[in-house]
Amino acid sequence: GYLITRNYGERANEAVNELMHHLIITIIIIALMLVFALGWRESIIVTFSVPAILAVTLFTAWITGQTMNRITLFALLLSLGLLVDAAIIVIENIHRHLHAHDAEDKEMGELLIEATDEIGAPTNIATLAIILTMVPMAFVGGMMGSFMKPIPYNVPVALIASLFVAYIFTPYLSLRLLKKPEHKHHDDKGGK
Predict the structure, then answer these.
(1) What's this model's pTM, rounded to 2 decimal places?
(2) Interatomic CA distance for residues 91 and 28, integer angstroms
(3) Would you call 22 helix, strand, or coil by DSSP?
(4) Residue 132 in this model has a pLDDT that exceeds 60
(5) For residues 101, 106, 109 and 111, what is the CA-based torsion angle, rounded to 10 degrees?
(6) Are 72 and 151 contacting, i.e. CB atoms less than 8 angstroms apart?
(7) Which of 29, 19, 16 is nearest to 84 (CA)?
(8) Is 78 exposed, middle or buried (0-12, 13-18, 19+ CB in 10 A)?
(9) What is the DSSP letter of 106?
(10) What whole-number distance in Å separates Cα of residue 186 and Cα of residue 64?
């Protein structure tokens, strides 16, 4: 009979399953934190941004012929905190604008654009800084180098994808899901 000594397919499969497991746990932790910090609708929006970012990243990797190894997948998992960063910053600022005292006078669309614009520059610079820390990995030589090669290609793509998702997808979902809080007490003071 046959004796299977090594099954890389099975091991790779296990690694991907373990990764998905960790990914789901991480998403749940982030979602719970946001429920308490901002609210459940905001939490849902950020949670949706994670699969969107990963989809864009994996699609880009596939188009450019990048191979995804376990190290790259773990690098993406490790950078997950960074990937949701932009979406959290945007949603937090949208939340702040919605609850500002002059929110009633503004159109929802105008308010969302203003809130997203406001944090654009610093978020871009912060993301660029993280991308630049990844670049030196492309120059690592030897065996370790060939393992690490996909990281400086894929993680920056994921980070850029996270910006696009944060600036386009997040405000769009906010428009669909979030509402301005109703201020009843203002009307009593002869506001009408």
Answers:
(1) 0.77
(2) 17
(3) helix
(4) yes
(5) -40
(6) yes
(7) 29
(8) middle
(9) S
(10) 56
